[in-house]
Design a protein that fits this description.
The chain has three helices and twelve strands, in the order αβββαββββαβββββ. It is α+β, with helices and mostly antiparallel strands and 226 residues long. The strands form two sheets. Strands 1, 4, 5, 8, 9, 10, 11 and 12 form an eight-stranded antiparallel sheet that branches. A hairpin with a 7-residue loop joins strand 4 and strand 5.
């Protein structure tokens, strides 16, 4: 089971890197109200990885954690970078009840990761949209810019409500909400919230947040509602 989960992580990562900035199935390639709706999303967008550099390009490497995954199914690693980064990851679990595919009509329970937060170290982490951060470390060198986040998630800066907790120093949080798509398992839709309004709480299944300081990403966390 553990090897199956790790293989699934690898397949999801490859898929996300290929289509992460491509057109969503069924779209006509046009933007609506300034929001880029051609960017596809999946549950893999709720995972984080260590980084590696290939030909000068920073890429995801080792799987760290992911919203919705059973932590007991992820095998320990002898990778030093991975084990170092794990020390700076806060997580929370919850028990869920779901249908048992081996016993139709029956239910089974399991623990899943419902929250993670990278508190930060000098070792950067990355997600499937290639957003990097070293968390609370003050240097910006290994942190994506706010414009990287805007582009990666197709945010309409003028007409979309996406900023919260803005302080007098100019720091704030980019908050993005998602819901499951029934058309294909594992696919998500980003919930677009018009400026001046709030997302309908009953629609939100996942929240992804980026802490912005000095116009760079200095923190990432994700949460699942169930």
């Amino acid at each position: 089971m553990k090897k199956t989960v790790l293989l699934l992580m690898s397949l999801l990562l490859v898929s996300a890197l290929v289509v992460g900035c491509g057109k969503t199935e069924g779209t006509d390639g046009e933007n609506t109200n300034g929001v880029n709706r051609n960017i596809s999303f999946s549950t893999n967008d709720l995972a984080i990885y260590t980084t590696e550099e290939t030909d000068g390009i920073i890429m995801p490497s080792k799987f760290i954690t992911m919203i919705g995954v059973d932590p007991s199914t992820v095998e320990p690693s002898d990778d030093e970078k991975l084990e170092l980064v794990k020390q700076f990851i806060e997580t929370d679990e919850m028990e869920i009840s779901e249908g048992d595919i081996d016993n139709p009509g029956a239910k089974k329970t399991r623990n899943v990761i419902r929250y993670f937060k990278y508190t930060g170290s000098r070792e950067p982490i990355i997600n499937s949209k290639n957003i990097t951060t070293t968390g609370m470390m003050p240097e910006d060198d290994n942190c994506s810019s706010v414009d990287d986040v805007i582009e990666a998630y197709g945010i309409d800066k003028e007409n979309e409500e996406y900023i919260e907790n803005k302080d007098e120093n100019g720091s704030y949080v980019i908050k993005l909400n998602f819901k499951d798509l029934d058309t294909k398992e594992g696919t998500l839709e980003r919930i677009i919230t018009p400026k001046g309004s709030e997302a309908e709480a009953s629609e939100v299944r996942y929240t992804l947040r980026f802490t912005i300081q000095n116009d760079h990403v200095h923190g990432i966390d994700a949460y699942m509602y169930f």
